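Structure in, sequence out. Go:
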């Protein structure tokens, strides 16, 4: 079974994102998010069991910085 989240409130997400976003995070650091309202898809693939990297957070921030409303 595969499950993912739905962002209902930007204030409770704990990271940059959008209401209506569908995020998912894997056990070894893989992540993806789909933002239908902004027509965005982010895919971050890494194998880091210890999660001692800030790459995912940085990638997500750069992803949103590239959006021009």
């Amino acid at each position: 079974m595969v499950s993912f989240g739905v962002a209902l409130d930007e204030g409770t997400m704990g990271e940059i994102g959008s209401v209506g976003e569908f995020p998912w995070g894997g056990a070894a650091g893989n992540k993806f998010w789909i933002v239908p309202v902004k027509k965005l898809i982010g895919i971050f693939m890494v194998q880091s069991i210890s999660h001692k990297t800030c790459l995912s957070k940085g990638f997500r921030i750069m992803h949103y910085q590239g959006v021009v409303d």
